[in-house]
Amino acid sequence: MVKNMVVFGIAVLVMISLYLLNGVALMLLWEWFMVPTFGLPAISMMQAIGIGIIVSIMTMQHIPRNEDEKIEMFKFSFLTPVLATAIGWVVHMLM
Asked: What average pLDDT does range 28-53 have in this prediction?
């Protein structure tokens, strides 16, 4: 049980780190290309993280190869939007 909680905790930390890294990259790329090209306003890191979460949910793809992967995919398909919504809520509160 404790091992599972540690693995889950590490997975959550990795996801948060990836969302932060993606947010920084999106914020900078937006500022470098979208602002001067289309005259759009710059976005904050929190807005970039939120946009990144939305895009990752909308573009998530995985094709299971066997029955075990189908079960894992079902768990992942349920867990991803729940975690993304929770992280999105925290990011929204920080805006």
From this structure: 93
